[in-house]
Write a structure and sequence with these properties.
It is built from 12 helices and 11 strands. By secondary structure, the chain is an alpha+beta fold. The strands form 4 sheets. It has a 4-stranded antiparallel β-sheet with strand order 5-2-1-7. The protein has a 3-stranded antiparallel β-sheet with strand order 6-8-11, covered by helices on one side. Strands 3-4 form a two-stranded antiparallel ribbon. The protein starts with 5 loop residues before the first helix and ends with a helix.
Length: 307
């Protein structure tokens, strides 16, 4: 039998909002499998969603820059938040974003690109030597359209174009670029706030959709609902799920009485041409990196040679 630790219970509680004893029971029933435990809680009606709410580890800045029909977003990490307020580091992030705009989003190509007499990789190394803290270019992404605009939004900006979160939204259209840019920024703000997982249901991972269907079906099967009723409930539940995670189906944050798809359609009058969302990118600082919680007392004891 798997050992259920307090840390596991805490993680499950944070990601589901369920009670401590329910979380412990879920982990016990599922032999410590975190995802299965999340599903177990949902089937019992004890968790509304299986969203991981773990704290992110990396510090640094997200940089975003656009130029007409093209835009890029980059993440440059540092060890502490203090460095993000350093002007040299801020300048480094903006420089890297500009390089990515002209050289593409391949991290190795960005690092190999020249800035004056040195490469970006050398510039990063020089900044490490000067500032005295490790830093790295973690990732980059770009969007481009043939006709239209790529708009950006930076949340928690410490300087223009760099902050704690960066979003790009690409709009394909032959319409007025100023109206498109305004719409694109509104959509980028929406993406920052709602964190959609895909543009529409076709863009979702089939395994995730299957898991959602199974959880819904099992929940109502346990309540004794007949299969034909369960099928209808699952279909309705999936529509609700799509409204939560698919950009076009979400309620538009600037006018919640409309979906994003409806808002984009209505904008075509001002833009003067059909508008299509060609893609979006949302980078939140440090997402997907687990922070290792240190035992300060143990570190002090180790440093002093004590056990």
């Amino acid at each position: 039998m798997a050992t259920i630790t307090a840390a596991m219970v805490k993680e499950l509680r944070e990601s589901t909002g369920a009670g401590m004893m329910d979380c412990k029971a879920a982990l016990t029933e599922t032999s410590g499998d975190m995802q299965a435990a999340q599903d177990w809680l949902r089937k019992k009606g004890l968790s509304k969603a299986a969203k991981k709410a773990g704290r992110v580890a990396a510090e640094g800045l997200i940089g975003a820059v656009t130029s007409g029909p093209k835009g890029v977003v980059v993440e440059v990490n540092s060890e502490t938040d203090f460095v993000a307020r350093n002007e040299q580091f801020q300048g480094l992030v903006k420089m890297i974003a500009q390089v990515a705009l002209h050289n593409g989003a391949d991290v190795e190509k960005i690092k190999a690109a020249k800035v004056g007499d040195v490469t970006v990789e050398t510039a990063i190394s020089d900044a490490i030597a000067t500032i005295g803290e490790n830093m790295s270019l973690r990732r980059a992404a770009s969007l481009e359209v043939g006709k239209g605009v790529v708009s950006s939004y930076v949340h928690g900006a410490v300087i223009d174009g760099a902050g704690k979160m960066g979003v790009l939204v690409a709009l394909e259209s032959a319409g007025k670029t100023d109206e498109l840019a305004q719409l694109g920024r509104q959509l980028a703000m929406h993406v920052a706030a709602t964190n959609p997982q895909a543009l529409d249901p076709s863009g979702l991972d089939p395994e995730i959709v299957k898991r959602e269907k199974d959880v819904l079906a099992d929940k109502y099967r346990q309540q004794g609902k007949p299969d034909n009723v369960i099928e209808k409930i699952v279909e309705s539940g999936l529509k609700t799920y799509y409204k939560e995670v698919c950009l076009l189906d979400q309620a538009f944050i600037h006018d919640t009485g409309k979906s994003v798809a409806q808002a984009v359609k209505e904008s075509e009058g001002k833009v003067g041409a059909p508008v299509k969302i060609a893609g979006f990118v949302r980078y939140a600082l440090g997402e997907g990196i687990e922070k290792q919680e240190s035992d300060f007392a143990a570190e002090v004891a180790a440093a002093s040679g004590k056990k």
